Amino acid sequence: MENLRINGERLWDSLMEMAKIGATEKGGVCRLALTDLDRESRDLFVKWCKEAGCSVEVDAIGNIFARRPGRNNELPAILTGSHLDSQPTGGKFDGAYGVLAGLEVIRSLNDAGYETEHPVEIVAWTNEEGSRFAPAMLGSGAYTGALDPEWCLARTDLEGKSVAEELQRIGYAGDKPLGGRPVAACFEAHIEQGPVLEAEEKPIGVVTGGQGQRWYELTFIGQEAHAGPTPMARRKDALVGAAEAVQLVNQIGFDFQPDACATCGMMQVSPNSRNVIPGHVWVTIDMRHPVDDRLSGMDAALRAGVEEIAKRRNLEVQLDAIWHFPATPFDSDCVAAVRDGASALGYAHRDIVSGAGHDAINMAGVAPTGMIFVPCEDGISHNEIENATPEDLTAGANVLLQAMLRSDQK
Length: 410
Ligand code: HGY
Ligand code: MN
Ligand code: MN
Ligand code: MN
Description:
Blueprint: H1 8-18, H2 36-51, E1 55-58, E2 64-68, E3 77-83, H3 96-112, E4 120-125, H4 138-144, H5 149-154, H6 163-170, E5 183-191, H7 196-199, E6 204-210, E7 212-221, E8 225-226, H8 238-255, E9 261-263, E10 267-270, E11 276-277, E12 280-289, H9 292-312, E13 316-325, E14 328-329, H10 332-344, E15 349-354, H11 359-363, E16 369-374, H12 390-409
Parallel strand pairs: 3-4, 3-5, 5-16, 6-15
Antiparallel strand pairs: 1-2, 2-4, 6-14, 6-16, 7-12, 7-13, 8-11, 9-12, 10-12
Bound molecules: (2S)-amino(hydroxy)ethanoic acid (HGY) and manganese (II) ion (3 copies).
């Protein structure tokens, strides 16, 4: 098993083929969850898996499981995978790399005529990005029970379309139940989406866990009025309140250094007319920290801060906390399997905590789980210019193969 390697060229070609679906001008992809383009990417993935001899099942929230039998199919599966949905201005590698690295592992096992003890499964999770339907990691959250499945299926996009109806529309409302698939070990390969590995010229990140996250939706309600005759002192301007809140969120990010992150990514202004004082503004907030107490401190600072703004500006305020998961460590055996795989293959590597959320973080709640990171150019992701090298992507997939085989031997 030690001398098994993946076919890096075939992996790169599959990534470039997949990147044609939803390709954008600047070389990225836009494949929002459960759109026709997401369906196209799912169909291509299913086709490739069947060509590789896998059986394919889809669960009730559209998670796709491709299964390669092992010698003893009573054993729990060795699972790997990631997501095919993207950000609106996403990159070619975020998510797709982990799905296609899993497929490449199966293709390479086939080439070598290598029979594993356990069955091997690749998964493509639904709505990992949380861009069209909030929150993120929805498919794996429903699968693992980290999120309530009915709540997940009822989530709607900004046009009021639900996950459930969109799954039906694209033909991926699967007949398999959510969860309950026995998993011996789970690994996810992903680009780092930050600058550390590239700066240290290390092709492999041994991911020890992920930081905690909290998502909120903040609404300020003031009073629509005419932009001309309404004196400044009489205004209840919801957008000015929201603007202060955006500054507050950014300041909380700095106040809780080191390691805190705080972002307002979306804003909706109503009635959104040049000469009407905004009466209703909705803002999204994403806060993260690797230490739970510090993330709780950020939460408290946010709650106190938005109340103070509302009071001072004579506005109504509503802060909905829609999602939270704590800082999550990965399984020590899986982390060791990744680290030893990188060492055995002679790849420079270092331990790293994931700044991004991943489906592996949900999986860590139900099975021994680990992740492999590879560098991305300038640490840029969630951007159409996202880039990675064939060499690093190959290295990551080779480590994935070794880690999975080691778990298979246990
Ligand atoms: O937000 C994240 O960390 C991931 O891209 N869903
Ligand atoms: Mn991702
Ligand atoms: Mn992402
Ligand atoms: Mn008028």
